[in-house]
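Quiz preparation item.
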């Protein structure tokens, strides 16, 4: 099947999950995310706001803020996406296609530049439609995360010298029904470091 066919098939299954089943799985996924070392050690959380039948991240955002973490959320502008700092879930409002998006207060690159020559550990929570056990990802067809991560990792704010910049762990949050044996992949596709479901954790480091 093509990516589009796989996406439609799996999203239909995800959309059919019962509300009480989804709430139970959200709690399990949330516990796994918040207890993971990459999350516990992160100073920064790049968090999407769960939309429709996606894993609900609003409780996780609240807990991250309560724990004193700096939280950013994505906002789409044209064909690109940027992460903007939020201080509460009340900063999120309906935006691109009705998805909750933040106000444009301070963007991640500006925040990082203000930190000077310091190491900032961050965890990004990514949405997605379909994943396989090798962490290949099918998104929603627009490539926002692929382009954003490629841009972020090519800039000076994302260093690998161990002394400055952003040290980022990417984690896709999904339900077990979104995991398939194998999906087609291309060179530009970004694989998250982790895929976390209620049933398993793939790619743990």
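Solution:
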């Amino acid at each position: 099947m093509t990516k589009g066919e796989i996406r439609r098939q799996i999203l239909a299954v995800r959309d059919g999950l019962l509300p009480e089943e989804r709430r139970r799985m959200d709690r399990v996924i949330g516990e796994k995310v918040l207890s993971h070392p990459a999350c516990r050690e992160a100073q920064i959380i790049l968090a999407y706001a769960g939309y429709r039948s996606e894993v609900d991240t609003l409780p996780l955002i609240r807990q991250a803020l309560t724990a004193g973490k700096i939280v950013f959320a994505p906002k789409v502008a044209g064909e690109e996406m940027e992460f903007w700092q939020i201080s509460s879930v009340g900063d999120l409002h309906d935006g691109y296609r009705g998805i909750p998006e933040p106000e444009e207060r301070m963007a991640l690159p500006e925040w990082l530049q203000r930190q000077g020559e310091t190491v900032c550990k961050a965890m990004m929570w990514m949405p997605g439609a379909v994943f396989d056990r090798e962490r290949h990802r099918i998104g929603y067809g627009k490539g926002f995360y692929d382009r954003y991560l490629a841009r972020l990792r090519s800039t000076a704010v994302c260093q690998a010298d161990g002394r400055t910049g952003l040290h980022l762990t990417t984690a896709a949050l999904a339900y077990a029904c979104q995991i398939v044996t194998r999906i087609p992949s291309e060179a530009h596709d970004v694989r998250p470091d982790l895929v976390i479901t209620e049933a398993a954790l793939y790619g743990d480091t």
